[in-house]
Design a protein that fits this description.
The protein is an alpha/beta fold. The protein folds into two domains: 255 residues, NAD(P)-binding Rossmann-like Domain (Rossmann fold), CATH 3.40.50; 208 residues, N-(1-d-carboxylethyl)-l-norvaline Dehydrogenase, domain 2 (Orthogonal Bundle), CATH 1.10.1040.10. 48% of the residues lie in helices and 14% in strands. It is built from 21 helices and 14 strands. Strands 5-2-1-6-7-8 form a six-stranded parallel sheet, sandwiched between helices. The protein has a three-stranded mixed sheet with strand order 4-3-10. A three-stranded mixed sheet has the order 9-11-12. α5 packs across α6, α15 packs antiparallel against α16 and α20 packs across α21. The termini are far apart. The relative contact order is 0.09. Bound molecules: nicotinamide-adenine-dinucleotide (NAD) and D-Mannitol-1-phosphate. The site of D-Mannitol-1-phosphate has 9 residues, from α10.
Amino acid sequence: MQLNKSIYKDYLEYPERILQFGEGNFLRAFVDWIVDKMNKELDFNTGVLVVGPLNNDKVYELNDQSGLYTLLIKGIENRKLINESTIINSITRAINTYRDYDEYLKAAESPEMRFIISNTTEAGIVYDNKDKLEDRPQNSFPGKLTAFLYHRYKSFNGDLSKGLIILPCELIDKNGEKLKDIIIKLSQQWKLESGFIDWINNANVFYNTLVDRIVPGYPTETADEIEKELGYRDKFLVEGEYFHLWVIEGPKELAKEFPAHKIGLNVLFVDDLTLYRTRKVRILNGLHTIMVPVSYLYNIDTVKDSINDEVIGGYIRSALYDEIVPTLDLPQDELNEFAAAVIDRFRNPYIKHFLISISLNSMSKFETRVLPSILEYNKRKGELPRKLLFSLAALIRFYKGERNGEKINLSDSPDYLQMFSKLWENCDGTDEYYKYMVEIVLGLEELWKMDLNKIDGLKVLVSRYLINIEKKGIEEAIREIL
Ligand SMILES: NC(=O)c1ccc[n+]([C@@H]2O[C@H](COP(=O)([O-])OP(=O)(O)OC[C@H]3O[C@@H](n4cnc5c(N)ncnc54)[C@H](O)[C@@H]3O)[C@@H](O)[C@H]2O)c1
Ligand SMILES: O=P(O)(O)OC[C@@H](O)[C@@H](O)[C@H](O)[C@H](O)CO
């Protein structure tokens, strides 16, 4: 028996007030859960129309379940075990702009539509100069959104009261501002009337936001068992931790229209989210990114096992407290509290967060999430952060794509994968070759926005670590830096 409205007796239909780009695990475990909670506890009376941004049919499977799915929240909060399973009823239906473009534009004509929410990964908020207004659909997410907003503007003759609140959740700096800039750029490129750009500026509000909740996603290993217990099949099961934080930067009136804080949800309306973002990205995401290659090569597969292991756990804690925390400008108590909470979240005994899923696009993640700590540490202390750089050496080894004779399922941009494949293919095992390989990687200026070879001592250190990992093995190599 599949989950759908025929078996869910509390099913309710809500007016579509949110257009959501993306059907992914994170949005379902975070935004749609928040909306569901507000509907149930505050009479928020809001349905979410999901738009699949990619050209695939995955989104339609949500319709087979009447938009319903089960969220499994697991963890420890205030020393209490939380193990909740909730059927989320906020999604009304899902469409795909590649097949349902007319439906998509029709949603722009609805007077009830009020919010745009998105999470299209770091690859989503990009300017594509090939996009055109006439395309059905435009290739990029901002292109699709510009067409949607223009259609709304035209349908309501520029009525200022029909503007929208735009809340992007992509994990990029100034997500709202960037999205708005691209929309304005496309509007100019498409030669849309200046009245439209005025409407964008005066009737719509683009917020910068920062999201935080660990969502490992579909519980592959335990799904059968869970479904047996629930008594129905659910293709959209999603597992996440209890902790959640949504920091929203911009005009505070939003709190009235989106009063999540009133039911105890951790949604903050702030003037500036920079410090929240830096703290979260450098500590939580930074630790995830450094632990992936080191711990995976050490034969560990999950975050929890990494933090609980004596050697790897020690390595992670040392990187955190000795090399990341000292580079952040926040009150020490606050930093220590946040750092300790992150370690606790990693230790969540009820969640299996696989390192391999975090490894996706590790090269660009290293640049945004780890490199700033390396540079800041070097600037402040006049020396190099050894643990963080060890991770870079491990990352180069990770991209050899092999652990104990087995293939590693690497997932990154084809350019990097090809580069590493060639480099490792030609490796003759000499120290000179490893140094050469490190030099090539450190010289990827488009990625690092600088030539890392120019930083005193960095190439020597990373080469030494890589040679140690290759010749002595990861365990001995780590012990040498602890
Ligand atoms: N999973 C987490 O713990 C978590 C927590 C906070 C933030 N995030 C952020 O959310 C993003 C998605 O994570 P997820 O766990 O939902 O992954 P997912 O694989 O379940 O979903 C990916 C989503 O992005 C969309 N997408 C992918 N590539 C795109 C592109 N090029 N253009 C437009 N849309 C695209 C897909 O349609 C899908 O909705 C990540 O990039 C991450 O930074 C994830
Ligand atoms: O989702 P990604 O691939 O951008 O990064 C992997 C994790 O670091 C990330 O999902 C964290 O779990 C999340 O950012 C916590 O809020």
